[in-house]
């Protein structure tokens, strides 16, 4: 077994995803999810050697209890596994303007993540809880923070600024930061390999379509624009998030319709998107099934999802000029041949043509070109954010060992 194993932690406010990743080939040896934190039915499920297991956690468990269980009852039970760990890699949603790359975690880094709490009030406090718990569980291991926002820090001001008073940016940090950066970076690296080009010459559009969804324009290997904003609420139609809307709707609902700000934010984040439009589900598989049964609201949800995405993709012709490939990833991008077909139909002005057979068969973790020979290139590339986190963690630990030597 490789000695380059990384425990990757993705701590949310009420759940924690974890994976033991081989940094050399991206293989997940163990992966799992602890959920329902601070509730009586806190629980943990995981997959090890292809076998699914689960357990309930003590009532009201949260990050530290979950991490302690993972270490004591899962990792330490696998003989010799813990001794192969090189580092712990933490996914951190918001690094503000401070972090353009992954970093080794020290008290200064934790303080900086804390300073970004107002930009990611649900995520960053949970990340800090996770980091603290991991420090207790693995005091001898380096901890590394990998930021969702880092890849997007190359955006020019004309793309990241909102047309608000300049002071709101300078003094309060109000700007577009973008998210899913780790995924878009992975897609850029894989696209460069597939296109046989150095990363610095790759111009692509990367559409990460999962429960959260974002699309990014990448020029010469660097992000030049992206659909998410100061927070992950902006941009595309998502599972339960609304994406772009007229900000006056918020004022209207509060001033004229009697909603509280909290209720409105709950609507925008948790009751909108595919769920809100369809009234059925946030899950794309259910939306597709209902659309195929001629449910008009499922069809509307699907159409709005595709229309908004196609408009974003078309608009990225502006910063890119030349597009080497359009790439689909994330649960929907990797699996929905229907969405890919609809997007290319909406983008017919760019002369896209699908290879119908390849589109239908490039699903379930397969990667490949799905466009016809006479078309600009369209690809599916399964994302692997955990692998990027593991690779960055190993690289940073190796670098610090060199510096320390
Ligand atoms: P997350 O953002 O939580 O990581 P994923 O990337 O796993 O999400 O994507 C989840 C979405 O992918 C869900 O809407 C799910 O319905 C959709 N999805 C998964 N498999 C399919 C499929 N075969 N066809 C269409 N959509 C799918």
Describe this structure in words.
The protein is α/β, with parallel strands linked by helices. It has two domains: 5-147, ATPase, nucleotide binding domain (Nucleotidyltransferase, domain 5), CATH 3.30.420; 197-385, ATPase, nucleotide binding domain (Nucleotidyltransferase, domain 5), CATH 3.30.420. The protein contains 16 helices and 14 strands. A hairpin with a 5-residue loop joins β2 and β3 (28-35). The two termini are 26 Å apart. The structure holds adenosine-5'-diphosphate. Residues 210-212, 239, 283-285, 288, 330-332, 335-336 line the site of adenosine-5'-diphosphate (ADP).
Quick summary of this structure?
Helices cover 40% and strands 19% of the residues. By secondary structure, the chain is an alpha/beta fold. The strands form 2 sheets. An 8-stranded mixed sheet has the order 5-4-3-2-1-6-8-7. It has a 6-stranded mixed sheet with strand order 11-10-9-12-14-13, sandwiched between helices.
Task: Note the topology.
Layout (H helix, E strand, L loop, with lengths): L4 E7 L4 E7 L5 E8 L7 E6 L2 E6 L6 H13 L9 E8 L10 E2 L2 H9 L8 H14 L4 E6 L9 H4 L5 H7 L8 H15 L8 E6 L3 E7 L2 E5 L21 H10 L3 H10 L2 H6 L5 H9 L3 H20 L1 H4 L4 E5 H6 L1 H10 L9 H6 L6 E2 L8 E3 L4 H20 L1
Helix pairs in contact: 1-3, 10-11, 11-14
Bound molecules: adenosine-5'-diphosphate.
Adenosine-5'-diphosphate binds next to helix 10 and helix 13.
